[in-house]
Amino acid sequence: MEYFSNIEKGALVKLFNRDGYVLDFSTSDFDVFTMNSVGVALCEKYKLSKGRSLNAYISEATEKESAKLLIDLFDYYELNGFMDKPFEKENYYSAYQRCKPIVERVRSMLNNSMIPVDNLKTVFSNDYISSQLDMMLNMQGENPTEAIGKAKELIENCCKTILEDKGVEINNKWDVGNLVDETMKLLEITPKHIPDTAKEAKAIKALLQELKGIASQIAIIRNAYGSGHGKSASYKGLQERHAKLAIGSSVTLVNFLWDSFERKSN
């Protein structure tokens, strides 16, 4: 995912980079700051000035890593009141104003991409399910095939956790579609439980129907491309973007099911 355009990155770096210096950081302070932000002491790594080390890192880091560091630097800028200092007002205030909405937009993008998984890891007490989340995220680039298999298993384990908690006997012949269907029935969130008199009833029913379909579609992808089935010598797996699609869809469905389960339980 692209968080900043190159022009936006350049504008932010220019706000912080002052002819080789970065704001008011000493070299040691800057290394501590960047270590806490992204796990890398930039000056120690690149053996360059603070400004050049920042440029070098931004040019080679992932989008998420560079976004994290630039946002942390912007927060440091604001928390230390740089925009209120006379020199800053005269030379950098217009740049600060242009960068602020960019940072807020990217901050929102980062939060939206991280919240679903973080929430699931918090609410699931089952260690195995939490480990699945970690494995999927780690595997999506290195082993998309395995990640797709894990996406299906995540849905299965979520549904089984909910059904077993409520004392529902699980039929060994149920596939993942059956598990989702029985879970939605138990939680009374199937389309038929939405009265026609409800506002936007048609849209709600359609959306729930699509959510139910996620499980079946991931199962189809898994059977053809994911782990768990033998492959011929000519087999070619899908790409990272397809694994991300399967993972994102499974997390969306599981997040919705688990949230519904908690609300009903409470």
Notes on the structure:
The chain has 266 residues and is mainly α. The protein has two domains: 6-114; 124-265, Four Helix Bundle (Hemerythrin (Met), subunit A) (Up-down Bundle). Helices cover 73% and strands 2% of the residues. The protein contains twelve helices and two strands; from the N terminus they run H-E-E-H-H-H-H-H-H-H-H-H-H-H. Strands 1-2 form a two-stranded antiparallel ribbon. The longest helix is centred in the middle third of the chain and has 31 residues, at 93-123. The protein is elongated, with a radius of gyration of 24 Å.
List keywords for this structure.
two-stranded antiparallel sheet; mainly alpha; Four Helix Bundle (Hemerythrin (Met), subunit A); 2 domains; 2% strand; 73% helix; 266 residues
Structure at a glance:
The protein has 12 helices and 2 strands. The protein is mainly alpha-helical.
> Poorly predicted ranges (pLDDT <50, ≥5 residues)?
226-235
Rg is: 24 Å
Give the overall average pLDDT.
80
The number of E-state strands comes to 2
Q: Strand order, biggest sheet?
A: 1-2
> Beta-strand percentage?
under 5%
| CATH topology-level name of the largest domain | Four Helix Bundle (Hemerythrin (Met), subunit A)
Distance between the termini: 37 Å
Largest sheet: 2 strands, antiparallel
Q: Briefly, what CATH class of the largest domain? A: Mainly Alpha
Shape: elongated
- Range of helix content: over 70%
Order of helices and strands: HEEHHHHHHHHHHH
Which CATH architecture of the largest domain? Up-down Bundle
- Total number of distinct structural domains: 2
Structural class: mainly alpha
Q: How many separate helices? A: 12
